[in-house]
Design brief:
CATH topology of the largest domain: Neuraminidase
Strand order of the largest sheet: 18-22-21-20-19
Number of helices: 5
Strand content: 25-35%
Order of helices and strands: HHHHHEEEEEEEEEEEEEEEEEEEEEEEEE
CATH superfamily of the largest domain: TolB, C-terminal domain
Shape: globular
Number of strands: 25
Amino acid sequence: MKRIVLFIAAAVFVAAAFPAMAQSWREANRAALDAYKSEDWPAYLQSVTRLDELRPNHPRVLFNLAGALARNGREDDALSALERLASMGVVMPVKDDADLATLRTAPRFAAVVERLTKNGAPFGSAKRAATIDAKGALPEGVAYHSKSATLFVSTVIGRSVWSVDRKGRASKLPIAGDQLWSAMGMKVDQKRGLLWICTAATTMTPGIDAALEGRSALIAWDIKAARVVARVELAEEGVKHWFGDLELDSKGNAYVSDTTAAAIYRHVPGSGKLELWLKDERIANPQGLAFAGSDSLLFVADYPTGLWAIDAATKSVEPVAAAPDVSVVGVDGLLWMRGSLVAVQNGTSPQRIVRLGWDAKQRRVTSWELLEANRPEFEELTLATAVGDSLYFIATSQWEAFDERGKLKEGASPREIVVMKR
C-alpha cells in the first residue's frame, strides 16, 4: 500500500512531509534542487551528500549522489556509488542519464549497466495458490488458518474478505456492510481461532458516507463460528486514520499500524478499545509490523525511511541499520519467518520479496536474499503471510491502476485476485 510517492523528479528525491525531524531533509533537498537548476555542481554535491547522510542506503539518493560525483569530476567515486547501487538489486536508468555522461566509456560503467539490467529480470519459483474471480477488487491482505487450511484475502474496493478452502472454492465472509469498509491487513490468531481484520473508511471505499471518511476499526471474526465477535472503532474529531496492517503478540493482543496518523495502536481483546501505543515523529508512514520471534522486539516498516525496532517493554525506538548493499525503504508487508525478516518491497524498482539477514546482537540487517521479483503474474505486490516454510502473498493488488477515489484509471484493465505461494 503506497500512501506517499517515494521517487519524485529526475534529479532529486523529494521527502514526505512529516514533523520537525524532516526539516534538515527538506532544507538539503531544496538546496540540491536549486543547485542543480543553476548548475552549481559543487553545491549540488554538498547537498546530495547531506541527503545521503540523512537517508542512507536509499536507492534514489544514491543514484543522485553518483550523478553529483560525476558532475564534479570524481568518476571513480561515482562508479563506486553505481556499483553499490547495483549490488542492492534495484533498477535505475543510468545508461542514458545526462549526469553520468562522462562515465559511459569506462569498462566499469558497462559492467554496472549490465548488472542493473539483470536486476530487472524475472526471478522466483512461486506458483498460483488461489485465483478469485473478483476483477478490480484491489486485494490487500492475506492470512491463513492452519487448522481448517483456509486462506483469507481482503479487498479495498471490493469491501469484502474472501475465504478459499482447501479445494480452492472461494466465498465472501458474511460481514455486514456497515461493519466492513475497505478491508486491509489481516492476521490469524491460530490458538484462539480468530481472524483479525483492519478496516478503513477512505476516499477509495465504495459507497462510503463522506462523514465516515477517516475512521478505522479492528474486527475479530470467529473462524469456527463464522461470525464477528468483536469490532472496535477509532474515530477522533479532526484526525484521520487508516489502519493498514497489524501484528499479534503471544497473548493475542493486536498492534495496528495507522498509516495516516503515523502511529501504532494496541487492542487488548475484551477491552473494547484501541489505545495509542506509540507515536514517534521519525516514523512517517508505518506499514508492516513483525515481532522478532517473541514479544520483546517489534519491527515496523516505515515506507520512506526504512525499518525501525521498538522495544515492546520500554517503547524505545531505534532505526535499524543495514549493510551498504541493503535497502529497506518502500517496504509494505513485513513478517518474521524462520529467524529472518521477510519484506515485500513495492516502493522499489523492481517490486520484490526479499529475506533479510538479521544480526540480533548489533541490531543490524546484514544481508538480503531475493525471493521473488518481476514475475509476469505480478501487478503490484502487497502483503504476505508465512505458513511453516511456505509464503503466501498477494500478486495482483493493482493499487496504481486506481485513483484516490477508487476509480479505475483510463487505460487500466481490472484483474482477478491472484495469491501466490512459494
